[in-house]
Amino acid sequence: MSLISSFPKRLRESALDMVSLMDHSPGQGQYASEQSFREYVARSTNRSYAEIDDLLERKRRQAAAIPARIEYITRLAREARVAIATHDDDSVAKVEQWPSLGVTLCEFPTKIEAARKAHELGLAVCMGAPNVVRGQSSGGNLSATAAIQAGVTTVLCSDYYPTAMLSAIFTLEARGTATIPQATRLVTLNPAQAVGLGRDFGSLEVGKVADAILVKLDSQRVPLVMRMFVGGQECIARGGNSQRKSGTV
Q1: Helix, strand, coil distribution of the chain in percent, nearest 5
Q2: pLDDT at 247 over 50
């Protein structure tokens, strides 16, 4: 069963909390040209040149069906009240179509003009925390720090390195890009609000679901989790020993 044909069933089973529209066709978003797509596939897989040629040809054939697929997926997601995100937007024109389709989150825009337009249209703009920590995009695209400084990025996600979310908070503070509270909201309350979960998650408030951690910076300014509370119970103490002590947050 293909992903498209199984999509309605997954929605009925409440198996999806968010849908992300990712067009990784050559010449779109992350891959500015067929050559860059070819180089990425060659670098990251063991495909031969002939196999990459076949993949490119299949991508070209599939491109014509993309608009109809987007309309179908977003319509079903809206009806099921599932959050919708887009991925690797690279132009103002592409971003402008999203609000009418129910999109609320713009993930990893590759160019600042796309990020600005998404922000202007009320979409939450999400960049990767590893991009912040590294100081640049691993693919040579938009700098997350630059987008935050421009005031157009309100959400950071783990992308390919989950622990970068914690490191990004202190990296932004050290660079003078954001205060600790401002940087913390990028990985807590803002993401929750962007996908419709802000009422129950994202901040320490009465009635909300929340875990809490106590963090210390080491001599190299690497954040270390000293204590962790989950469900009001301390489950990690300094040294990594599980204590399971009673506690409140």
Answers
A1: 40, 15, 40
A2: no
